[in-house]
Amino acid sequence: MENVRVRFAPSPTGPLHIGGVRTALFNYLFAKKHGGTFVLRIEDTDQNRYVANAEQYIIDALNWCNIPFDEGPNKNEKFGPYRQSERKDLYKKYADTLIEKGWAYYAFDTSEQLDFHRKEHEEKGKTFIYNWHNREKGRLVNSLVLSDEETQKKINAGDNYVIRFKTPQDETLIMSDEIRGTIKIDTNTLDDKVLFKADGMPTYHLANIVDDHLMEISHVIRGEEWLPSMPLHVLLYRAFDWESPKFAHLPLILKPVGKGKLSKRDGDKLGFPVFPLVYTNQQTGDVSRGYKEDGYFSDAFINMLALLGWNPGTEQELFSLKELTQVFDLKRVSKSGAKFSPEKTNWFNQQYMQSKTDSELADLFLQILEEKQIKVEKSYIQKVVSLIKERAVFVVDFWNLSDFFFEAPSEYDVKALKKNWKEGTPDLMNELVTVIKNIQDFSSVNTEKEIKEWITKKEIGFGKVMQPLRLSLVGKLAGPHLFDIMEMIGKEETIHRIKKAIKEL
After folding, report:
1. Residue 419 and residue 146: Cα distance in Å, rounded?
2. Is pTM beyond 0.85 here?
3. Could you tell me if 274 and 264 are in contact, meaning their C-beta atoms sit under 8 angstroms apart?
4. How many angstroms separate the CA atoms of 422 and 502, rounded?
5. Count of C-beta atoms within a 10 Å radius of residue 69
6. CA distance 140 to 135
7. DSSP strand E in 64-156: where?
């Protein structure tokens, strides 16, 4: 495949939803597989919804996901500028070209006039569509019914106008989608979309087509929500006599529960993020959670997203970014929506955690320990991590799974105490302290051997000693192998904790 160029073209109207991240990912994978270029273009023509920090958020999110753009704002600006607001002067020229070629026209209808037509149609049980069946009948005010002189007079007088596309009549438009195959549509059902607005800015439709052409985009890979726009975009390419890129429309990411598209509301309700990074709304001060700050590894997050709506055709689920690049194929993208699963997302994170070295995880855990002002050698932290990581989903889980390796329990599990700390337990624990004092080799293996021999000699059940001992050292009936804990914290600390429990319980 020659000269593949794809683009991710988000609007800077807020944080980047994971649906947008997946679109960026699929574009990135397709570009890298074919030795192509991944372009970032900021589509900021909707100035009313523009959010100042959104563009930087998008760039930061792509970088955290390890799918940075090759070409875009302030980077390899071969076809710049890459913000549509900085390109607005060129769009009017292309809108005028369409008018000259008979593919577009000026429309002077006010919003009040259009509202009147809509209400009038509603009263008759119909839907008002501005297109072939009414655009030249005289009730609508446009350059198709006005003379050239009248049209120019209105423009010179400063009358507000928009430029509409003149959709062809009585045609079956046959289109091709890389994922959905052949799509047919009757052009009589299409409305004449606005291409250029009264505020002097192009609509998405015009700017999108012009930019894709000028930036030599070969494949448009975007969300399913743009599928209804495909006929207009195909017709625009025809109107300009330009070669159309190949189109591929990705399936929606669906709610975990119920029907419909995944939204921030679903995340808030069920307790998971829908944005890659934490986001603060500068106007309201509202903070939205992010996968990065919630403790997810970026490679686990990307792996999870890749399998939402695409499958490799095998049973394999864990892929590095390099592997994804090698096997990704648009032909294996599903037409139907992909249901998001918070549980599966956590599973991916856990799998990636297990694949990391104890040294890597110790470095991450060290940051948490430093915040708690706990200072220990990295080799000690590595050993702790090796004993507890299998039960963790996030690095932040490490503390609750291992706090007893760093400090004596400050409280004890009430339910466990009631069941396991009996009247004779303090005496048994005092005897155990004496046994422990006499153990010379305090390795896990030897300590276990000597204590179990003592229990056997006393002819008592192991639970009578082992459960109170675990409660003394950990504060609850949880944690890794008890004698590994004892070796880690050492003989002196082990005795100290047993005595503390005897005193406090």
Report:
1. 92
2. yes
3. yes
4. 11
5. 24
6. 6
7. 104-107
Q: Return d(Cα 504, Cα 71) in angstroms, integer.
A: 65
Whether the CA torsion 61, 64, 69, 72 is positive or negative: it is positive
Separation between Cα atoms, residue 143 and residue 156, nearest integer Å: 14
pLDDT at 46: 75
**Paired strand residues for 182:** 176
pLDDT digits (tens, 9 = 90+) for 194-252: 999 988 889 999 999 999 999 999 999 999 999 999 999 999 999 999 999 999 999 99
Annotated active-site residue in 246, 261, 264, 500: 264
How far is 188 from 132, CA to CA, in rounded Å?
Answer: 7
Q: Look up residue 199 and give its two tokens.
A: 């505020």
Judge whether 264 counts as a catalytic residue.
yes
What span, in angstroms and rounded, lies between the C-alpha atoms of 348 and 297?
9
By the 8 A CB rule, do 136 and 167 touch? Answer: no
Residue 20 CA to residue 223 CA, distance in Å, equals: 8
- Tokens read off for 295: 């403790």
- Residue 137 makes CB contacts below 8 A (sequence gap 6+) with 145
**Calpha distance 486→473 (Å, rounded):** 8
The string of pLDDT tens digits covering residues 148-168 is: 999 999 999 999 999 999 999
Chain-centroid distance, C-alpha 125: 42
**CA geometry: angle 306, 309, 313, nearest 5 deg:** 80
Contact of 39 with 8, CB cutoff 8 Å: yes
Residue position matching structure tokens 């970088």: 63
Indicate the SS3 state at residue 71.
strand
Take residue 459 and report the two structure tokens written for it.
């002819």
Question: Which candidate, 392, 402, 334, places its Cα nearest to that of 372?
Answer: 402
In the block, tokens 């299409």 appear at 190
- Both tokens of 268, joined, read 């808030």
Place of tokens 């209400």: 119
The series of mean pLDDT values per 10 residues for the chain, 505 residues long, is: 92 93 98 97 82 90 98 94 90 96 97 95 94 93 96 94 97 97 97 93 93 98 96 98 98 94 92 94 85 96 98 96 97 96 97 96 95 94 96 96 96 95 95 96 97 95 95 96 97 97 93
Beta strands in 171-218 (DSSP E): 172-177, 181-186, 194-196
Task: Kindly state the DSSP code that residue 133 receives in the 8-state scheme.
Answer: T
Of 276, 242, 248, 228, residue with least CA distance to 332: 248
> Please, which residues bridge with residue 105 across strands?
164
Give the N- to C-terminal CA distance of the chain in Å, as an integer. 74
